[in-house]
Amino acid sequence: MSRRGTALAQAAGEATDVPALPADPALRLGERCRWPRDTRRAAAMAQAAGEPNPLRWHAAVTFPGCEIKVRDEMQRREIDTVLPMIRFWRIRSRQRFVAERPLLARTVVFGLDHSFQSIAGIEGLERVVRGASLAWADLPEDDVFDLRLRILRGEFDATLRQSHPERPWPRLIAYLIRNGDLPPQAVWTHRQAKAAGLKFAAAA
Known about the structure:
By secondary structure, the chain is an alpha+beta fold.
């Protein structure tokens, strides 16, 4: 299959003969990385045709606690967004359930096609990070895609050991535990939780 045919097939979600990432338990724990299909198709078609990607990546600063609200409103406008979430176990009233919070406080990474998309009037959005020229700062596309791949690999997920007790902690999760930002119970396996007499309000 040609490069153009492969790009278009991947944009449409069709099977190709190109090697894919190996199956990983992390991908079965829910939607980790929202990527609108229309955005994928536009980017893939531009790449296949040798044209520059029409998307330019920026970082939005939200008001406190408005990260998810801003992300959801951007996605309703079909704007591509990246908002890494930390997933962990939380214990309340002797029950354990999955909780999550944004990795980057007050920050939403988004890709905008300036020819027809706009973020004007989004509630909860404070400003967009600007560069030295006072214009919106452009983020490197490779860095954004690398962040998206790390989300898909589950590097911000502390619950992956629930059925794989020998799986090592992701480095970021280990750092948060050492720093006291997450309690040790955030990475307990099912066996450890049952030994402590906990019930399961929800399980990934």
